[in-house]
Amino acid sequence: MADTSIDKARGLLTAPVRRASPWATFGAAALAATAAVMMAGVMVLGPGVRFEEPPVAQPLFPNG
């Protein structure tokens, strides 16, 4: 009787085998790619880049 309870306890303590999901892998890759693109954008633009408002466009006809 002791052997069966010990075997049962060992069975409960072992970690279950997980199978990798292809969707989880795809999600992790998409997240990593998004982060890489965002970091590349920060490196290209740099911290000192400011987008200023464009000057007001003048009308096509000067007399109205």
Percent helix, as a range, is: 55-70%
The dominant shape is: rod-shaped
> Secondary-structure element sequence?
HH
Uncertain residue segments: none
State the helix count: 2
Summarize the structure in words.
The protein has helices at 2-13, 22-45. The chain is mostly helical. The mean pLDDT is 81.
Question: Can you give keywords for this protein?
Answer:
64 residues, mainly alpha, 56% helix
How would you summarize this macromolecular structure in one to three sentences?
The chain is built from two helices and no strands. It has 64 residues and is mainly alpha-helical.
Spell out the blueprint of helices and strands.
Blueprint: H1 2-13, H2 22-45
